[in-house]
Design a protein that fits this description.
The protein has 20 helices and 15 strands. With 463 residues, the protein is α/β, with parallel strands linked by helices. It has a domain at 92-108 and 224-421: Rossmann fold (3-Layer(aba) Sandwich). The longest helix has 19 residues, at 112-130. The two termini are 38 Å apart.
C-alpha cells in the first residue's frame, strides 16, 4: 500500500512515511493510492470479532506485513486499547428506536482516544525502529489536545505542542490538557478561535525549512493513521447491530466539525461496509451542512456554542472527500483550495452535488435544540447526552435504526448538562481528580511567527 497527496505533488509514500509526514509537503492530505474492497463473506467473518482483533484485521489492509509485522501490529493495538475502561472498547447501546455508539471509554473520555492512543504508540514504535525525534504540533477545538497529550506524555524522543483557543474550550477540556506537567508536553492558548490555531499549524507545516529542521509531526486528523483507527469502530458497530447480516445496510449519524470522524465512515463505505447513508450533523457553525445542501463551501464567522469541539469553519478533512468527489483530479483539488484561501469559498458542479447527496444528508442543529435534546433524552430514557452527541441525535429525527456516534462523556460539558436537566452530571474519577491540580500553559497571540519562536526557544532550552 502506497500513499499519495490530494494535491498530487508528493511521490508515493509507505505507510510509515505517511504517518511521520502527517500533512503532505505540497500542502495536501495523504490518502492510500487505492482503498481496499472487502467481500461480503469477510464482513460476515469480522462481525463477531473483539474490537482489538477487528482493528488488526482492518488496519493490516492499509499497512502491510512487510512494513509492520502482524505480531508487532497486534502488540501496538493491544497496548493502545488496554487503557479503555469498557471491555468492548466502543460499545453499542440501544437508545429509543436506534443505537448509540459510545466512543468515550478511553483515558480522556472522548472519541479522539480511539485514534490517539494508537497513534502515540505507533509514533514510539516507528522512532524506536528507525531512529530520530519527533516534535508534534497540533491544534484542538477541545478533545484532540487532551487525547493527543495523553497518548504521548512521557514518551522518549517525542515533544508535543498543542494549540487551543484561549477560553473557548470547556473548563474540564482545558484542565485535561494543562494539568499534564510532563516535560515533553507544552500547551499553548491561542488568542483566537480553533480556525486560527489550525491555520497556524498548517502555516508552520508548510514552512518546509522549519518543518524539516525541527522534525514536525501531526496528530490532528490530517494524519492518515487517525482516520484509519476511526474506520474500525464503524465496522465494529455495524457488526454488533446486524450480527453480520450483509443484507442489512445501516445509517450512521455523526456530529462533526472537522470532517475527520465522518470521513472515516465514508472510507468504511468505500470499502464496501453495508451502509445506507451518513447523516452529517453540525451545530450553527454549519459550513458542511450548507455544502451538502447547496454544493457551495463558503466560510463565515465562527460562532461559540455549547458544543465547542464543533465550532469550526474550515474543515481540514473535507479536502480528502473532495479528492474522491472529483475522481482524483488533483488539479481541481488545488484549484478549490486556492479559491478557498483567496475568496473564502468555492462550489462544485450540480452533478457532483448529486453524488454527494447519494452518501450524505445533513442537518444543522440550534443551541436551543441541542439543550432540548439533552433534556428530552434524559427524561424519556434516563440516558445523558453530551451536547455534541445531542446534535447528532437531533439530526436523526424520526428515522428508525440509526447508529449515532456518542463522541464524548457528558461530564466534560457540565454547564450544558446543567442547563438541560437542572443538575450537573456526576463526575467520573478521571475528571473529579483534575480539580486542585497544578496547571501549566502559555498564552500567545494567534500568530504563526510567535508560535514558531516559542517552539524554537523551548526546544533549545530542553524544556
Amino acid at each position: 500500500m502506497r500513499y499519495i497527496s490530494t494535491r498530487g505533488g508528493v511521490a508515493p509514500l509507505t505507510f510509515s512515511q505517511a504517518v511521520m509526514m502527517g500533512l503532505a509537503t505540497d500542502g495536501g492530505l495523504l490518502l492510500p493510492e487505492a482503498i481496499p474492497t472487502v467481500a461480503p463473506d469477510q464482513w460476515r467473518a469480522w462481525a463477531d470479532l473483539p474490537f482489538q482483533d477487528l482493528a488488526v484485521a482492518v488496519m493490516a489492509l492499509f499497512i502491510g506485513a512487510e512494513e509492520i509485522p502482524r505480531a508487532d501490529l497486534q502488540e501496538l493495538v493491544r497496548r493502545s486499547f488496554a487503557t479503555f475502561s469498557h471491555p468492548d472498547i466502543t460499545p453499542v447501546v440501544p437508545l429509543g428506536r436506534g443505537h448509540v455508539l459510545e466512543l468515550f471509554h478511553g483515558p480522556t473520555l472522548a472519541f479522539k482516544d480511539v485514534a490517539l492512543q494508537f497513534l502515540g504508540n505507533l509514533f514510539e514504535y516507528l522512532l524506536a525502529r528507525d531512529g530520530g525525534i519527533l516534535n508534534i504540533l497540533g491544534a484542538t477545538s477541545g478533545d484532540t489536545g487532551s487525547a493527543a497529550i495523553h497518548g504521548v506524555r512521557g514518551k522518549r524522543g517525542i515533544n508535543i505542542f498543542i494549540l487551543h483557543p484561549h477560553q473557548r474550550v470547556s473548563p474540564i477540556q482545558e484542565r485535561q490538557m494543562t494539568t499534564v506537567l510532563d516535560a515533553n508536553v507544552h500547551n499553548i492558548a491561542v488568542q483566537g478561535d480553533f480556525d486560527d490555531g489550525q491555520r497556524i499549524v498548517k502555516t508552520l507545516f508548510n514552512d518546509l525549512e522549519f518543518r524539516n529542521a525541527y522534525s514536525l509531526g501531526a496528530v490532528n486528523s490530517i494524519n492518515w493513521a487517525r482516520i484509519l483507527a476511526q474506520v474500525v469502530y464503524f465496522v465494529h458497530a455495524w457488526g454488533r447491530v446486524t450480527g453480520g447480516a450483509v443484507e442489512r445496510r445501516v445509517t450512521f449519524a455523526v456530529p462533526t466539525g472537522n470532517f475527520g470522524d465522518i470521513f472515516a465512515g465514508y472510507v468504511a463505505r468505500r470499502m464496501g461496509l453495508p451502509m445506507e447513508r451518513l447523516i452529517l450533523a453540525t451545530n450553527r457553525n454549519d459550513i458542511l451542512t450548507r455544502f451538502v445542501r447547496t454544493g457551495a463551501y463558503r466560510t463565515g464567522q465562527v460562532q461559540p456554542t455549547v458544543s465547542p469541539s464543533m465550532d469550526i469553519q474550515v474543515s481540514s478533512n473535507f479536502e480528502r472527500f473532495l479528492y474522491y468527489l472529483v475522481n482524483g483530479d488533483c488539479s481541481r483539488v488545488r484549484g478549490f483550495m486556492t479559491e478557498l484561501a483567496t475568496t473564502g469559498g468555492f462550489a462544485v458542479t450540480p452533478e457532483e452535488l448529486e453524488r454527494t447527496a447519494e452518501v450524505f444528508e445533513a442537518a444543522a442543529v440550534s443551541e436551543a435544540e441541542t439543550i432540548d435534546q439533552i433534556r428530552a433524552t434524559w427524561r424519556e430514557h434516563r440516558y445523558l447526552l453530551d451536547p455534541h452527541t445531542a446534535v447528532g441525535v437531533r439530526a436523526v429525527g424520526d428515522r428508525v435504526g440509526v447508529i449515532c456516534l456518542a463522541t464524548a462523556h457528558p461530564a466534560k460539558f457540565g454547564e450544558a448538562v446543567q442547563r438541560a436537566i437542572g443538575q450537573p452530571p456526576e463526575l467520573p474519577p478521571a475528571l473529579a481528580e483534575l480539580h486542585g491540580k497544578a496547571t501549566r500553559l502559555t498564552v500567545l497571540p494567534a500568530d504563526a511567527g510567535q508560535v514558531k519562536r516559542f517552539m524554537v526557544q523551548t526546544l533549545a532550552a530542553g524544556r
